[in-house]
Amino acid sequence: MPASPTPSALCVEGLTFSYSGKPVLEDVSFKxxxxxxxxxxxxxxxxxxxxxxxxxxxxxxxxxxxxxxGAEVRAAPGAALSRLGVxxxxxxxxxxxxxxxxxxxxxxxxxxxxRTAAERMEEKLLRVGMQDQVRARVRQLSGGQRRRIEIxxxxxxxxxxxxxxxxxxxxxxASRRVLVDHTHSLCEEQGVAVLWAxxxxxxxxxxxxxxxxxxxxxxxHGDVATVTAAAGxxxxxxxxxxxxxxxx
Length: 248
Ligand SMILES: Nc1ncnc2c1ncn2[C@@H]1O[C@H](COP(=O)(O)OP(=O)(O)OP(=O)(O)O)[C@@H](O)[C@H]1O
Description:
Strand order of the largest sheet: 6-7-8-3-9-10
Helix content: 25-40%
Bound molecules: adenosine-5'-triphosphate
Number of helices: 8
Strand content: 25-35%
Protein backbone atom coordinates (compact mmCIF):
# COMPACT_ATOMS: atom_id res chain seq x y z
CA MET A 1 0.00 0.00 0.00
CA PRO A 2 1.42 3.44 -0.85
CA ALA A 3 2.23 5.61 2.17
CA SER A 4 -0.39 8.27 2.76
CA PRO A 5 0.92 11.69 1.77
CA THR A 6 1.81 14.16 4.53
CA PRO A 7 -1.09 16.60 4.84
CA SER A 8 -0.57 20.31 4.31
CA ALA A 9 -0.07 22.15 7.60
CA LEU A 10 -2.80 24.56 6.49
CA CYS A 11 -5.27 24.26 3.64
CA VAL A 12 -7.74 27.09 2.97
CA GLU A 13 -10.23 26.51 0.16
CA GLY A 14 -12.74 29.00 -1.26
CA LEU A 15 -13.05 30.95 1.99
CA THR A 16 -15.52 33.84 1.89
CA PHE A 17 -16.60 35.97 4.85
CA SER A 18 -18.64 39.12 5.49
CA TYR A 19 -19.25 41.33 8.52
CA SER A 20 -22.99 42.20 8.51
CA GLY A 21 -23.16 41.90 4.73
CA LYS A 22 -19.86 43.72 4.09
CA PRO A 23 -17.52 41.33 2.22
CA VAL A 24 -14.10 41.09 3.90
CA LEU A 25 -12.68 37.87 2.40
CA GLU A 26 -13.58 36.62 -1.07
CA ASP A 27 -12.79 33.15 -2.36
CA VAL A 28 -9.46 32.87 -0.52
CA SER A 29 -7.55 29.64 -1.23
CA PHE A 30 -3.98 28.64 -0.41
CA LYS A 31 -1.89 25.92 1.24
CA UNK A 32 1.13 25.95 3.54
CA UNK A 33 3.34 22.86 3.65
CA UNK A 34 5.30 21.63 6.69
CA UNK A 35 8.44 23.73 7.21
CA UNK A 36 7.25 26.55 4.95
CA UNK A 37 7.51 30.18 6.11
CA UNK A 38 4.69 32.12 4.46
CA UNK A 39 4.29 35.86 4.87
CA UNK A 40 0.74 37.15 4.61
CA UNK A 41 1.41 40.65 3.35
CA UNK A 42 -1.42 43.17 3.21
CA UNK A 43 -2.09 46.81 3.98
CA UNK A 44 -4.30 47.85 6.91
CA UNK A 45 -7.80 46.48 6.49
CA UNK A 46 -6.80 43.82 3.93
CA UNK A 47 -8.44 41.06 5.99
CA UNK A 48 -5.41 39.46 7.67
CA UNK A 49 -6.78 39.42 11.22
CA UNK A 50 -10.17 38.25 9.98
CA UNK A 51 -8.48 35.34 8.20
CA UNK A 52 -6.67 34.45 11.45
CA UNK A 53 -9.95 34.66 13.37
CA UNK A 54 -11.47 32.13 10.98
CA UNK A 55 -8.48 29.77 11.19
CA UNK A 56 -8.62 29.88 15.01
CA UNK A 57 -12.43 29.51 14.95
CA UNK A 58 -13.10 32.77 16.72
CA UNK A 59 -15.41 33.32 13.74
CA UNK A 60 -17.10 30.76 11.58
CA UNK A 61 -17.66 30.82 7.82
CA UNK A 62 -20.11 28.53 6.06
CA UNK A 63 -18.50 29.30 2.70
CA UNK A 64 -15.21 27.50 2.17
CA UNK A 65 -13.10 25.07 4.13
CA UNK A 66 -10.08 25.31 6.46
CA UNK A 67 -7.97 22.27 7.45
CA UNK A 68 -5.02 22.16 9.83
CA UNK A 69 -2.70 19.20 9.40
CA GLY A 70 -5.48 17.38 7.53
CA ALA A 71 -8.24 17.99 10.13
CA GLU A 72 -11.08 20.29 9.09
CA VAL A 73 -11.73 22.99 11.68
CA ARG A 74 -15.54 22.79 11.46
CA ALA A 75 -15.84 19.00 11.32
CA ALA A 76 -13.02 18.15 13.75
CA PRO A 77 -12.20 21.30 15.75
CA GLY A 78 -10.44 19.44 18.58
CA ALA A 79 -8.03 17.62 16.26
CA ALA A 80 -7.46 20.72 14.13
CA LEU A 81 -6.87 23.25 16.91
CA SER A 82 -4.65 20.89 18.92
CA ARG A 83 -2.08 21.28 16.11
CA LEU A 84 -2.28 25.07 16.01
CA GLY A 85 -0.14 27.63 17.89
CA VAL A 86 -1.03 31.34 17.83
CA UNK A 87 0.72 34.59 18.69
CA UNK A 88 -1.99 37.26 18.63
CA UNK A 89 -1.55 40.89 17.60
CA UNK A 90 -2.24 42.02 21.17
CA UNK A 91 0.13 40.50 23.75
CA UNK A 92 -1.67 38.05 26.02
CA UNK A 93 0.87 37.23 28.75
CA UNK A 94 -0.06 37.90 32.37
CA UNK A 95 2.39 40.67 33.34
CA UNK A 96 2.26 39.91 37.07
CA UNK A 97 3.17 36.24 36.70
CA UNK A 98 6.62 34.87 36.00
CA UNK A 99 7.60 33.42 32.63
CA UNK A 100 7.41 29.96 34.20
CA UNK A 101 3.91 30.52 35.60
CA UNK A 102 2.62 31.82 32.26
CA UNK A 103 4.01 28.84 30.37
CA UNK A 104 2.91 26.18 32.85
CA UNK A 105 -0.60 27.60 32.91
CA UNK A 106 -0.80 27.37 29.12
CA UNK A 107 0.63 23.83 29.16
CA UNK A 108 -2.05 22.77 31.68
CA UNK A 109 -4.75 24.15 29.36
CA UNK A 110 -3.41 21.81 26.68
CA UNK A 111 -3.50 18.86 29.09
CA UNK A 112 0.28 18.36 29.34
CA UNK A 113 1.58 16.58 32.46
CA UNK A 114 3.73 18.65 34.84
CA ARG A 115 6.79 16.71 33.81
CA THR A 116 6.22 17.09 30.07
CA ALA A 117 5.38 20.76 30.58
CA ALA A 118 8.62 21.38 32.50
CA GLU A 119 10.70 19.60 29.86
CA ARG A 120 9.03 21.40 26.98
CA MET A 121 9.28 24.76 28.73
CA GLU A 122 13.02 24.37 29.09
CA GLU A 123 13.41 23.27 25.47
CA LYS A 124 11.22 26.01 23.96
CA LEU A 125 12.75 28.81 26.05
CA LEU A 126 16.20 27.67 24.98
CA ARG A 127 15.05 27.75 21.34
CA VAL A 128 14.07 31.43 21.58
CA GLY A 129 17.12 32.32 23.71
CA MET A 130 15.10 33.09 26.87
CA GLN A 131 16.19 30.23 29.13
CA ASP A 132 17.75 32.59 31.69
CA GLN A 133 14.50 34.48 32.21
CA VAL A 134 12.35 31.62 33.44
CA ARG A 135 11.86 33.15 36.92
CA ALA A 136 11.50 36.75 35.74
CA ARG A 137 8.17 38.52 36.00
CA VAL A 138 6.90 39.32 32.52
CA ARG A 139 6.51 42.98 33.52
CA GLN A 140 10.33 43.20 33.85
CA LEU A 141 10.95 42.05 30.27
CA SER A 142 11.30 44.17 27.14
CA GLY A 143 8.72 44.06 24.35
CA GLY A 144 10.97 41.86 22.21
CA GLN A 145 11.60 39.43 25.07
CA ARG A 146 7.86 39.19 25.77
CA ARG A 147 7.23 38.31 22.14
CA ARG A 148 9.83 35.55 22.31
CA ILE A 149 8.12 34.20 25.43
CA GLU A 150 4.82 34.21 23.56
CA ILE A 151 6.40 32.18 20.76
CA UNK A 152 7.83 29.68 23.27
CA UNK A 153 4.39 29.41 24.86
CA UNK A 154 2.70 28.85 21.48
CA UNK A 155 5.13 25.96 20.83
CA UNK A 156 4.58 24.06 24.10
CA UNK A 157 2.01 21.67 22.62
CA UNK A 158 4.19 21.18 19.50
CA UNK A 159 1.89 22.61 16.82
CA UNK A 160 2.20 21.78 13.13
CA UNK A 161 1.21 25.35 12.26
CA UNK A 162 2.16 28.61 13.97
CA UNK A 163 0.18 31.80 13.24
CA UNK A 164 1.72 35.17 14.10
CA UNK A 165 -0.39 38.30 13.62
CA UNK A 166 1.88 41.35 13.16
CA UNK A 167 4.21 40.09 15.92
CA UNK A 168 6.81 42.86 15.53
CA UNK A 169 4.51 45.81 16.22
CA UNK A 170 6.25 48.19 18.63
CA UNK A 171 9.65 46.44 18.48
CA UNK A 172 12.93 48.07 17.52
CA UNK A 173 14.90 46.87 14.49
CA ALA A 174 17.24 44.59 16.46
CA SER A 175 14.35 42.87 18.30
CA ARG A 176 12.46 42.43 15.04
CA ARG A 177 15.50 40.78 13.48
CA VAL A 178 15.86 38.34 16.39
CA LEU A 179 12.18 37.41 16.20
CA VAL A 180 12.25 36.87 12.43
CA ASP A 181 15.42 34.74 12.71
CA HIS A 182 14.11 32.58 15.56
CA THR A 183 10.90 31.94 13.68
CA HIS A 184 12.73 30.94 10.49
CA SER A 185 14.84 28.49 12.45
CA LEU A 186 11.66 26.81 13.71
CA CYS A 187 10.67 26.09 10.12
CA GLU A 188 14.10 24.91 9.06
CA GLU A 189 15.00 22.78 12.08
CA GLN A 190 11.63 21.53 13.30
CA GLY A 191 9.43 21.53 10.21
CA VAL A 192 6.89 23.89 11.79
CA ALA A 193 4.79 25.73 9.18
CA VAL A 194 4.47 29.46 9.81
CA LEU A 195 1.95 32.04 8.64
CA TRP A 196 3.31 35.49 9.53
CA ALA A 197 0.96 38.43 8.94
CA UNK A 198 2.44 41.87 8.38
CA UNK A 199 2.08 45.06 6.38
CA UNK A 200 5.88 45.58 6.38
CA UNK A 201 7.59 44.56 3.14
CA UNK A 202 11.02 44.53 4.77
CA UNK A 203 9.95 41.53 6.88
CA UNK A 204 9.81 39.37 3.75
CA UNK A 205 13.00 37.48 2.88
CA UNK A 206 13.92 36.07 -0.52
CA UNK A 207 13.58 32.50 0.80
CA UNK A 208 9.95 33.06 1.96
CA UNK A 209 6.66 32.30 0.31
CA UNK A 210 4.52 35.42 0.10
CA UNK A 211 0.76 35.92 -0.16
CA UNK A 212 -0.32 39.46 -1.04
CA UNK A 213 -3.81 40.12 0.30
CA UNK A 214 -5.69 43.28 -0.58
CA UNK A 215 -9.34 44.11 0.05
CA UNK A 216 -10.09 40.51 0.94
CA UNK A 217 -8.63 38.90 -2.20
CA UNK A 218 -5.33 37.16 -2.85
CA UNK A 219 -3.51 39.24 -5.45
CA UNK A 220 -0.34 37.12 -5.63
CA HIS A 221 1.03 33.92 -4.07
CA GLY A 222 4.38 32.22 -4.53
CA ASP A 223 8.06 32.61 -3.84
CA VAL A 224 9.34 36.17 -3.90
CA ALA A 225 11.16 35.86 -7.25
CA THR A 226 8.11 34.36 -9.01
CA VAL A 227 5.65 36.89 -7.58
CA THR A 228 7.93 39.79 -8.51
CA ALA A 229 8.59 38.48 -12.04
CA ALA A 230 4.87 37.83 -12.66
CA ALA A 231 4.10 41.45 -11.76
CA GLY A 232 6.85 42.65 -14.11
CA UNK A 233 8.42 44.58 -11.28
CA UNK A 234 12.04 44.96 -10.18
CA UNK A 235 11.30 44.51 -6.48
CA UNK A 236 8.77 43.13 -4.04
CA UNK A 237 8.11 46.71 -2.89
CA UNK A 238 7.15 47.71 -6.43
CA UNK A 239 5.02 44.59 -6.78
CA UNK A 240 3.20 45.28 -3.52
CA UNK A 241 2.56 48.87 -4.55
CA UNK A 242 1.27 47.89 -7.99
CA UNK A 243 -1.03 45.19 -6.59
CA UNK A 244 -2.47 47.16 -3.69
CA UNK A 245 -2.74 50.80 -4.66
CA UNK A 246 -6.23 51.86 -5.64
CA UNK A 247 -7.32 48.43 -6.87
CA UNK A 248 -10.77 47.03 -6.13
N1 LIG B 1 -15.64 43.05 14.06
C1 LIG B 1 -15.76 43.72 12.90
N2 LIG B 1 -16.94 44.19 12.49
C2 LIG B 1 -17.06 44.82 11.29
N3 LIG B 1 -16.04 45.05 10.44
C3 LIG B 1 -14.82 44.61 10.82
C4 LIG B 1 -14.61 43.92 12.06
N4 LIG B 1 -13.29 43.59 12.14
C5 LIG B 1 -12.71 44.06 11.01
N5 LIG B 1 -13.62 44.67 10.22
C6 LIG B 1 -13.37 45.26 8.89
O1 LIG B 1 -12.92 44.21 8.05
C7 LIG B 1 -11.87 44.65 7.18
C8 LIG B 1 -10.64 43.76 7.40
O2 LIG B 1 -10.14 44.00 8.73
P1 LIG B 1 -8.94 43.14 9.36
O3 LIG B 1 -8.77 43.62 10.76
O4 LIG B 1 -9.20 41.72 9.13
O5 LIG B 1 -7.73 43.62 8.43
P2 LIG B 1 -6.16 43.55 8.69
O6 LIG B 1 -5.56 43.22 7.37
O7 LIG B 1 -5.86 42.66 9.83
O8 LIG B 1 -5.83 45.05 9.07
P3 LIG B 1 -4.72 45.64 10.11
O9 LIG B 1 -3.39 45.49 9.43
O10 LIG B 1 -5.15 47.07 10.21
O11 LIG B 1 -4.83 44.89 11.39
C9 LIG B 1 -11.64 46.11 7.50
O12 LIG B 1 -12.39 46.87 6.56
C10 LIG B 1 -12.22 46.28 8.90
O13 LIG B 1 -12.72 47.58 9.08
